[in-house]
Amino acid sequence: TAGMRLELANEISKFLHPPHLYSRRELLATPSLVPKAAGVYGWWFRCLPAPIDTSKCANDQGFTLLYTGISPKEPPKNGRPPSKGNLHKRLRQHYVQTAAASTLRRTLGCLLADDLGLQLRRVGSGHRRQRTNFASDEQALSEWMEENAFVSWVKCKRPWELEYALIRQLDLPLNLLGNSRNRFHPELTGARARCLAQARALPVLQSVNGYY
Questions:
Q1: How far apart are CA 12 and CA 46, in angstroms?
Q2: Cβ contact 15:166 at 8 Å
Q3: What is the pLDDT of residue 212?
Q4: In what order do the strands lie in the sheet with 63-71?
Q5: Are 45 and 64 within 8 A, CB to CB?
Q6: Could you tell me the end-to-end alpha-carbon distance of the chain, in angstroms, rounded to an integer?
Q7: CB pairs under 8 A, 24+ apart, for 56-65?
């Protein structure tokens, strides 16, 4: 309906003009800044993690929008219970957990692997308990994000609808799902595949500085 289209247009406008871009340092110091609500978040970058053509990307306050995500996910259509996620939980995963819990962290780590000396590894015990992350290199990735990756969000009841519209309308080079038309998609999938192949060729790490 016209009303729904207007509401969506207003949400997109709010998303593209956030009142503030939050750093990792800010959100770890004051976790309550992130609402325990459903919504869409965007990652804005001071420095790019790779040579990316950003001429068609959104910019705000001197930062470039490269990625968007949601929490919770769209409810399953197979009768399974819906996700209990929210913005607060999801952004904490991106900032303090590992690449095993964050698609964004894995993408950034793979793109920055050569520059930062990062190496994707299989970590854990037993095939079922293995996780793939950057092991002791996760700290270096967190530090890079603290200086270069900033986040904003928009609360909304059906975030998957807004995310779909954003991916359809904007140039978001770091999004993979539903974004195969993006010019950077082949390079990003290639970088991730190369890192994963290298991880599979290396021995499994049992434990590295608490990362599993």
A1: 22
A2: yes
A3: 39
A4: 59-60, 63-71, 39-45, 149-155
A5: yes
A6: 48
A7: 56/171, 57/170, 57/171, 57/172, 57/173, 58/16, 58/170, 58/171, 60/16, 60/17, 60/18, 60/21, 61/21, 63/21, 63/150, 65/16, 65/170, 65/172
Of the candidates 30, 19, 91, 103, the residue with the CA atom closest to the CA atom of residue 61: 19
pLDDT over 70, % of the chain: 93
| Interval 7-54: pLDDT, tens | 888 889 999 999 999 999 999 999 999 999 999 999 999 999 999 999
* pTM for the model: 0.91
Mean per-residue pLDDT for 181-191? 97
pLDDT, one tens digit per residue, over 81-137 is 878 889 999 999 999 899 999 999 999 999 999 999 999 999 987 665 678 999 999
What are the strands, taking DSSP E only, across the chain? Answer: 39-45, 59-60, 63-71, 121-123, 131-133, 149-155
Residue 14: CB partners within 8 Å, gap ≥ 6?
154
2-16 vs 159-169: helix axis angle to the nearest 10?
A: 70
Identity (one letter) of the amino acid at 161? E
Side-chain-side CA neighbours of 184 within 13 Å: the count stands at: 24
| Distance separating alpha carbons of residues 170 and 164, to the nearest angstrom | 10
Q: How long, in residues, is the chain?
A: 212
Q: What is the CA radius of gyration of the chain?
A: 17
